[in-house]
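Board notes (copied after class):
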Amino acid sequence: MSAAAVAEAPVVDDFVYDPQIDAAIDALPLVLSLRSDPRFTESRPHAAAPDHLKKQMLTAGVLTGPGRLAVPPIVWTDSEANEMVSIVHLGRNLCGHPGIIHGGLLATLLDEGLCRCAFLALPSNVGVTANLNLNYRSPAFADRLYVMRASVTKVDGRKAWVKGHFETIPEEGEPTTVVEGEILVVEPKWAKSLPKVVDATA
């Protein structure tokens, strides 16, 4: 993105949004479909986090900015089916090998996304990761948009199991799964005493 484009980009809470990336997201057929589907609620949880907490938060603070998470991921949730879809752009400064997104970053984002999906099914909409299993299927190349899909597969009281994956957004053909995972999220007994950073069900 050019310096002029950066200068013209809107600044929100010290975060510069890349208008070109947002425009590319808005034009995706998947996004148009989700926005027309009344079952799904759209939100940007990273953008909604309180300003005084963002600098302490990994994905909503430290990892944001040009070349990293240049725009806050957009999340769609279906609270009836306990499903979630998210669109995220991964920049060139998030790599392990040059041009290939670090596997640890994908693990972090998938952990966060699967947890968010699990919150839909938990009594207090809050939980912590008890177990996370991942399988890496294909390299994730930098400076591209990706889709995260997740769904709750089982609920037992304060426990929720979720499956999900990251996939590519090809111009033609079927998407390629980059990484897939399963998570067990447990709602702590003291969950109700925790202040909520954002509305996890939005």
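Comment from the instructor: The chain is about 25% helix and 30% strand. Confidence is low (pLDDT under 50) at residues 1-13.
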